[in-house]
Amino acid sequence: MGAQGGFGWTASMGGSCIVGGAQTTAGSVTTGCKGSLESIQDCTGLCVAKMATVSGPRQTYSIDVTEVTQGQYSEWLATNPQLPPTTDETCGALTGYLQYGYRYTGSAPDHYPVVNVDWCSAYAYCLGVGKRLCGAIDGGSVSGEGYHDATISQWYRACSSGGVNSYPYGNTYEQDFCSGADAPTSWIPVGSLSNCVTSESGFAGVYDLSGSVSEWENSCFLMGDLTFCNARGGSFQDSEWVLACDAVTTSSTDYPRDDLGFRCCSA
Q1: How many helices (H) and strands (E) does the chain have?
Q2: In whole angstroms, what is the distance from residue 125 CA to residue 133 CA?
Q3: Are 118 and 247 in contact (CB under 8 A)?
Q4: pLDDT digits over 217-255, tens only?
Q5: Are 261 and 72 a contacting pair, CB within 8 Å?
Q6: Cβ distance 65 to 104 under 8 Å?
Q7: Which CATH number does the domain housing residue 146 bear?
Q8: Domain limits at 177?
Q9: Low-confidence residues of the chain, pLDDT below 50?
Q10: Domain count within the chain
Q11: How far is 22 from 264, CA to CA, in rounded Å?
Q12: For 177-191, b where at least 16 C-beta lie within 10 A, e where not — what string?
């Protein structure tokens, strides 16, 4: 079922450099790939976000330390990744992976989060760089109320440090730590807010899980004839309750927004 499992064209969980479906080939690395939060991927030659290890009782996995950037996404686009087959019930109508609408176009845009990409494009990017769109810890998608269960959701376990914290930095809301409506800054470079980061042992070093831009999750459901998917973490437009780790908003898979991006996980 595409609404519950993502693309029907691959059964892979991701986590390796050769993954079925939207495979990439080595691209030319931009000079913008630098710093401690991204690196050149050996198997593809692409600039990707570095990953942090997330511990847990059943499975240890990794998560991108930042949202995927415009520079990283553009490099992947330059490899001309293949589209899902038209028979795929969720993403078969996709005709391209381009960004739509507004994005940051000022100084050093490669280091800002990619926005205005639909759910299928986010899913395909993660698969294409040998990862997967964050979903269920045991593989596949998060269903039902699992989005706020640290034993089920990869994204929530990382944000809440295993269910311990309400926000990535602790249990008390700090309006100036992350980029939300109480401290509006619109788009910001990924990882640029030193207090908006996880720090608990076994979960440390993941930036911008609250605010900045919301993030697509592999957690989807049908409503009528449309597929909707959860978005996590809130954005620069959102208030305190939406910025909490256990909060979700939803969008249809084909409805990108200028405050919605994504990050990847691995098996």
Answers
A1: 4, 10
A2: 8
A3: no
A4: 999 999 888 899 999 999 999 999 999 999 999 999 998
A5: no
A6: no
A7: 3.90.1580
A8: 1-267
A9: 1-6, 11-15, 18-30
A10: 1
A11: 15
A12: bbbbbeeeeebbbbb
